[in-house]
Amino acid sequence: MAIPKVMGTELEYGITVKGDPDFDPISGCVLLVNAYHEDHAGEILWDYDQENPLADARGFQVDGEKYTPNQQENIARNKTLINGARYYVDHAHPEYSCPEVSSLKDLVRHEKAGERILEASRREANTLLPDGTQMLLYKNNSDRKGNSYGSHENYLMDRRTSFKQIVEHLMSFFVTRQVFCGAGKVGSENRSQACDYQISQRSDFFETEVALDTMVKRPIINTRDEPHADREKYRRLHVIVGDANLSEYTIYLRNGVTAIILSMIEDGAVTRDLAMRDPVQAIKQVSMDPTCKQKLQLGNGKRLTAVEVQSEFLEMALQYYSQSDTDPEIRDVLEKWQHALECLARDPMELNTRIDWVMKKAMMESFMDRKSMDWSAPEVSMLDLQYHDLRPDKGLYYLLERQGRAERIVTDEEITAAIVQPPTDTRAFFRGECLKRYGDAVFGVNWDSISFSVGDEPIKRILMAEPLKGSQKHVGDLLDSSETASELVNNLRT
Questions:
Q1: Which of 150, 308, 378, 494 is 20 to 30 A from 270 in CA distance terms?
Q2: What is the mean pLDDT of residues 427-453?
Q3: Which residue of the set 20, 49, 56, 90 is catalytic?
């Protein structure tokens, strides 16, 4: 039986400083991350010793050097937050990795909380910049200068499921799921064929089918084998093929449908041959066709549209869940998935309050009609970028939200709470609560461990190899009975 799909997202944000011709993105990111302050005390290291980014899921170790910053640089580039998230500098981008969650609604809450944390950081950072300059942040995937940055998803899987089997069934799903989770983009990049508007921000940048790298020769399926959990039991599927979404509905559907497909793969319930003849070509074909009508060539000789491929997956999913009581959240995802595919088959514009690429396209077409412009107008490209602007008073997605033209999954109050409250049903609860209660004694943190510096004793590392342990149910009483970190460590020994 498929294991519960603990999941999370990692978002790299676009960053620039308006009015600064000498803008250095790395320095800007360091300023941004350090502008964000929480109440817990102490300078906490990110525990790079627990990471192994060169392990490949195909069973080997890739040659290369593992980057480990010195202590000063580590503290300057990393923050572990009281909601269980990690906020840090990744190359030349600020990145927000939300805490592990087991519920889709929690995933939406915590990803959206990341937007608010970045915006709060931006406002604070701007008070430290010279007059006449302003830091701007974008939740998108391209700087339109040939550089793409990631929106990654992570899903806990059973290690007994072979990676070959995962690749076999996921490839065509990833190629086609962009029809309901693309963020939309004016024009093309990376030597792709010219177009007015396409579904995905990222599809131009995928150049191979399966590989470990995330920055060069990007693969549709990434092979990083870094479970951040018990390696004997789990793998963490690291998904790099998605777009940075703003629509709550899109985020919910993106992760929900993917989690369903992964459970089906674990249980051997993907039984139809939907393999693409050329996935790298097909992912671009899907993105370049906002009508969703173009037929794709399958390896078995069939020709199906992206929506028809997704409908095949939906039919298998409905059969898979028909034999047992279905969790209400899964049932809701299935209904939303089916509705989205029905709309896409008729007219994608029916989803103009739900799916990012459709919402953005409808807004820009309305603007072009009013101004008698076409897709080549620079104002249209500026609208594209402005959709992703994190400023609540400037970002066009947030304008749609205020106007009631963006369907919501969570409330503003739930998002605000997620800024300071970790999920209660995963180990993120223990991580976040330890920072709140014992922040001055926390020495280092990783997803699967937390280390304490207690008096003159050696550093005490507590391993958290089970993502669903460390929840409020498991450790609430333990934390309440431990007034200090020293007491917590002693109580854990008994």
A1: 150
A2: 96
A3: 90
